Amino acid sequence: MNEIKHHLIMTGSTSHMLRGDKVLKDKGIETALVPAPAEYGSVCAIAIRVRKEDSDISEKYLRENDIVISGIYEEKPQRLTGLIEKIRNSVIREEFLSILKKVEEGLELSFEDIVILLKAEGTAEKEALFKAADEMRKEILGDVVDIRGAIEFSNYCRKDCKYCGVRKGLTTLERYRMDEEEIMEIVHELHSLGLKTVILQSGEDPFWTKEKIGNLITRIKKETGMRITLSLGERPREEFEYFKELGADNYLLKIETTNKDIFEYVHPDDDYDHRIECSKWIRELGYINGSGCIIGLPGQREEDIAKDILFFKDMGINMIGIGPFIPAKGTPLEKYPHGSVEMTLKAVAVTRLVCKRVYLPATTALASIDPDGQTKALKAGANTIMLINTPSKYRYNYQIYSGKNMIDLKSAYKAIKGANRQFPPYLKFDMEVFSDEPNA
Ligand code: SAH
Question: Are residues 365 and 270 in the same domain?
Answer without folding.
Answer: yes
